[in-house]
Amino acid sequence: MKISHQLTAIAASLLIATPVFASDPDHFKGQPANTLEQAVAHFSEYNNKLEKVLSGDLTPEAMNNVHQLTYTLENALQKLDDEIDKLEETLEKVHKASEHADPDTVRSSGEQYLTNSRKIVK
Predict the structure, then answer these.
(1) Residue 27 has what pLDDT?
(2) What CA dihedral angle connects 67, 72, 77 and 82, to 10 degrees?
(3) Please, is 41 exposed, middle or buried when counting C-beta atoms within 10 Å of its C-beta (0-12, 13-18, 19+)?
């Protein structure tokens, strides 16, 4: 019975300590997403991890796990957002070049667009 009291005390101390950690933005950074490929891989992998955690009891340990997972997901989403912005710009080049009957730009920018967009969706 004494062990269960100790475990309860440890769990309670984690709950109390969490707000302190939350005020320190350097306590956990998550996996970086330096490339589009990394962002897509982390997004997929960490969504699966989050789904697994959410399917169970949201214990203090699970909540801490969710907290850490979200850092990597946020990094992946930020990189995806940046890359989507670039894709929009490239597609706009294709669009405008098509209006001006510029086949060289349509081909080169169109191929660039397709190459990068297929890193997200195949």
Answers:
(1) 65
(2) 140
(3) middle
Average pLDDT over residues 55-74: 94
Tokens of 80: 């995806």
- For the chain, what's the residue count? 122
User: What pLDDT, in 10s, does the model give residues 38-51?
Assistant: 999 999 999 999 99
* Cα separation, 37 vs 25, whole angstroms: 26
**Whole-model pTM?**
0.70
Structure tokens at 115: 């190459």
Q: Is 113 within 8 Å of 90 (Cβ atoms)?
A: yes
**Alpha-carbon distance values, 100 to 9, 48, 95, 121 (Å):** 71, 45, 9, 29
Amino acid at position 26, single letter: D
- In three-state secondary structure terms, 32 is coil
The DSSP code for 35 is: S
Higher pLDDT, 6 or 97: 97
